[in-house]
Design brief:
Layout: E1 5-6, E2 9-13, H1 20-29, E3 33-36, H2 38-46, E4 52-53, H3 54-58, H4 73-80, H5 86-94, E5 102-105, H6 110-115, H7 120-124, H8 130-140, E6 146-148, H9 154-164, E7 167-168, H10 170-196, E8 210-212, E9 224-226, E10 233-237, H11 243-256, E11 263-268, E12 271-277, H12 281-290, E13 299-303, H13 309-315, E14 320-325, H14 330-336, E15 343-347, E16 355-360, E17 363-368, E18 380-381, H15 389-403, E19 410-413, E20 418-422, H16 428-441, E21 450-453, H17 461-468, E22 473-476, H18 483-493, E23 496-499
Parallel strand pairs: 2-3, 2-5, 3-4, 5-6, 13-14, 14-15, 21-22, 22-23
Antiparallel strand pairs: 1-7, 8-9, 10-15, 11-12, 11-13, 16-17, 18-23, 19-20, 19-21
Helix pairs in contact: 1-9, 8-10, 12-13, 13-14, 16-17, 17-18
């Protein structure tokens, strides 16, 4: 059985024609004949190339409004017939079925139609039947047939043609078959998820555009990213983004999206080590850095404001891995680009998925993203003393940070500046003690500060410790059977406490 095959006849039926003309001309020069349908046939003939109509091959017209064109034994027999199988060859001869060695096809734009907000009938009409069947048939018979299943394969197929003409190796045909099943499985996943809606009866997630990373979390682990980073960022400087960079970038984007006013955040290991909201990016940067200038070393920086020259000069004084902003002044880029490996990203206004998932045990956990952002009207005063307007502002500020911190988490803030946080602790008391120690270490006065907790206080110990350090207002979800103990302590010591009714665990 010869591994090398020569293509003699091609079925071409595509939606995307950009980049196809050079391929078709090369195939024609190699003696490959064409059979096609509708608009693709017209396109081929417009290039001055001969092309047979599928209808002439099958002796059937396109019927049911174009729903049935290629679904015929004379098409699928020519694709699926095994060239070395004597019985298959006898039947091809008996029924006058010509062999088809190459199939170039792509699918109706189902996902794009759904994303456009089209009505259901329009969406249903974009469920491809003939195309998906052609892809599966050709891929199944990769031993004899080449399948080009999407526009993404035009370039590698062109390169192959230019290298050695209309011949293919078994290895090449198998590679194209693998790519074809990637196309078909992604397509079917999209259709299933549309029909399934919010039911979640099964988990189907498909992502293309594999990006091989240097390694995973550690050098001994392989790592890949699947998705379209280019839709979210333009990387205008720096080294290749790593697995850990991506984890921090994701955490940074989630955090900064909580804030509307000009804000700067510094993240390390998915947690904020500095954050401030100020009138200018420079002011926000200076006060964010003050929160923990030690941890900022090698961190990920993000802002929702345009970085100008003045801000860039200050930012450039420290070592960091990644910086993200919606835009940069030209002078700022010149400054920030002085370090060769520094990753500089421009954030694009791309929508993020509303579901998130992670692999676990022998399955997958799926949940809605935590999109709840508490507002003043969501706060319920649980104490005799009501918080001041400034305390409310600071509590909502702190609550946004604690929501995006690893549990158990405590955040101390004042004047819309993160003073310190305790994150990822096995006890809430430990988280608070960690935050207090950090704040003092960097010279912050906790008198008049607020405290935010990602979950309720089971005992009044945290409010007692915080109150002794000068904290005057506390925001927490509430919901403990012993809430009243915390409320009573606050009442006895002149501390304001509000509850939100919303827990923000982040494990």
């Amino acid at each position: 059985m010869a591994a090398t095959k020569r293509m003699k006849r091609a079925l071409v039926s595509v939606f995307h024609k950009d980049g196809l003309d050079e391929i078709l001309k090369k195939l024609h020069s190699e003696g490959v004949s064409f059979v096609s349908t509708g608009g693709t046939q017209s396109f081929i003939e417009s290039l001055g190339l001969p092309c047979d109509a599928v209808e002439d091959l099958t002796s059937y017209p396109s019927i049911l409004g174009g729903r049935v064109k290629t679904l015929h034994p004379k098409v699928f027999g020519g694709i699926l017939a095994r060239r070395e199988n004597e019985n298959d060859q006898k039947q091809l001869a008996e029924y006058e079925i010509p062999e088809i060695d190459l199939v170039i096809v792509d699918l109706y734009p189902f996902e794009e139609t759904v994303a456009s907000g089209a009505e259901e009938q329009a969406i249903i009409e974009k469920i491809d039947i003939g195309g998906i069947s052609l892809i599966r048939a050709a891929a199944k018979n990769y031993n004899d047939v080449v399948i080009i299943a999407s526009q993404a394969q035009y370039q590698p197929f062109r390169d192959m043609l230019m290298e050695h003409g209309a011949t293919t190796s078994l290895e090449e045909r198998r590679w194209f078959a693998k790519e074809a099943f990637s196309v078909s499985s992604h397509y079917d996943s999209a259709i299933f998820n549309y029909f399934d809606g919010e039911e979640g009866s099964a988990f189907r997630c498909s992502a293309n555009n594999q990006k091989t990373l240097r390694y995973g979390e550690n050098p001994h682990q392989k790592g890949h990213f699947y998705g379209n980073l280019e839709a979210m960022f333009d990387q205008i400087h720096g080294k290749e983004i790593s697995y850990n960079n991506l984890l921090d970038i994701n955490a940074a984007v989630d955090l900064i999206d909580e804030f509307e006013e000009t804000t700067f955040a510094v993240l390390k290991h998915n947690n904020a080590c500095g954050l401030a909201s100020r009138p200018t990016v420079l002011e926000a940067w200076n006060d964010a850095l003050a929160g923990d200038p030690v941890s900022a070393f090698g961190g990920v920086l993000i802002t929702n404001g345009v970085i100008d020259k003045d801000a860039a000069e200050e930012i450039n004084k420290i070592f960091f891995e990644v910086i993200i902003a919606p835009d940069y002044d030209v002078d700022a880029l010149e400054i920030l680009g002085q370090k060769k490996n520094r990753i500089i990203l421009v954030r694009k206004p791309a929508a993020l998925p509303k579901k998130q998932f992670r692999s676990l045990l022998n399955g997958v956990l799926v949940q809605d993203r935590d999109l709840n952002i508490e507002k003043p009207e969501d706060l319920k005063t649980a104490t005799t003393k009501a918080p001041t307007a400034q305390e409310i502002e600071d509590m909502l500020f702190a609550n946004k940070i604690v929501k995006n911190s690893k549990s158990n988490a405590i955040v101390l803030a004042k004047g819309k500046q993160l003073l310190a946080s305790g994150v990822g602790q096995t006890s809430r008391v430990d988280a608070l003690k960690q935050a207090i120690e950090k704040a003092k270490n960097f010279g912050f006065d906790l008198k008049g500060a607020v405290m935010a907790s990602d979950a309720f206080f089971p005992f009044p110990d945290c409010v007692e410790i915080a109150g002794n350090e000068g904290v005057t207002a506390v925001i927490q979800p509430g919901g403990s059977i012993k809430d009243q103990l915390s409320f009573d302590y606050c009442n006895e010591h002149g501390i304001a406490m509000v509850t939100t009714g919303i827990r923000h665990f982040k494990h």
